[in-house]
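Figure 6 in text form: structure in, sequence out.
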């Protein structure tokens, strides 16, 4: 597609969904965020995304063409067209792309949200200038994306970078994917909270656990220490396999500063190298990354990078 296109991107998340309209020079013409109605079910989520696309399109100059890209917490099966591997489980087994195209009467692009995040950070953020980058999303769930020389790899099964469902503890907690002890059960916010509740019979949010650990509260400190060790083991193993030039962390948990020193030290301990130099970087674009990446994926890429996603 032409780099002169207007672009609409939507980042569909577990708690919030955001839309953006970019002009051909990537200036923001419209931006809106709404809560994601997961409890109301699939059709409510579908309507929300369609409404946001229409709202963004209403800001287009008259007669201008545009593309639409959607980032989702899962992937669309290339054969069946159904969503799979989504931690927003109401999407699983649904023809989300086909249904949305019918609602909007137009073709759209749908990619994994971690791919969108990774693409954005590699083109305009912390991963810019690195050859091979592994992008991490750590929030309600845990996902990843792989970008090589400006191109985000999707793979024949559309699961490249999906480290969140690599089993690191066969005796661990059950995961919605059907396995036990997945990375996501260990280092996502929901995973840490569930482990805390199972161990102590008390319900604390991730922010409360982190705050308690920093104050030396014993239960929170134990849970947080386990989280950092699990982070180190999971990412250290991934680096041993992929050997990326850089790792970029995103999602709400990427704001935990301990990940970049105590967590990075645990990564160095578990990686298969005695002098690990892989930089572990905080994202630059913050909450903007996913929605910008979705917009660029919808057009085949950022200006000058068409068809390289």
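Output sequence:
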């Amino acid at each position: 597609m032409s780099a002169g296109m207007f672009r609409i991107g939507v980042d569909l998340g577990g708690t919030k969904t955001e839309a953006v309209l970019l002009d051909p020079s990537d200036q923001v013409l419209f931006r809106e965020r709404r809560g994601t109605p997961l409890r109301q079910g699939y059709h409510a989520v579908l309507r929300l995304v369609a409404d946001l696309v229409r709202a963004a399109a209403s800001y287009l100059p008259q007669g201008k063409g545009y593309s639409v890209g959607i980032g989702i917490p899962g992937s669309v099966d290339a054969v069946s067209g159904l969503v799979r591997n989504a931690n927003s489980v109401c999407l699983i087994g649904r023809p989300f792309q086909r249904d949305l195209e019918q609602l909007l009467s137009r073709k759209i692009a749908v990619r994994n949200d971690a791919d969108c995040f990774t693409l954005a950070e590699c083109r305009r953020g912390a991963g810019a200038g690195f050859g091979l980058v592994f992008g991490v999303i750590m929030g309600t769930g845990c996902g990843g994306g792989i970008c090589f020389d400006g191109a985000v790899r999707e793979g024949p099964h559309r699961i490249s970078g999906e480290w969140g469902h690599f089993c690191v503890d066969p005796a661990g907690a059950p995961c919605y994917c059907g396995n036990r002890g997945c990375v996501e059960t260990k280092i996502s916010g929901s995973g840490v909270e569930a482990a805390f509740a199972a161990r102590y019979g008390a319900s604390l949010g991730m922010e409360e656990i982190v705050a308690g650990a920093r104050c030396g509260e014993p239960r929170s400190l134990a849970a947080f220490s386990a989280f950092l060790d699990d982070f180190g083991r999971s990412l250290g193993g991934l680096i041993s396999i992929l050997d990326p030039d850089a790792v970029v962390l995103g999602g709400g948990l990427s704001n935990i500063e301990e990940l970049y020193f105590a967590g990075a030290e645990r990564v160095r301990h578990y990686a298969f190298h005695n002098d690990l130099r892989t930089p572990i970087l905080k994202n630059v674009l913050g909450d903007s990354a996913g929605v910008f990446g979705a917009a660029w994926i919808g057009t085949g890429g950022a200006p000058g990078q068409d068809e390289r996603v």
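Caption detail: Confidence is low (pLDDT under 50) at residues 301-309.
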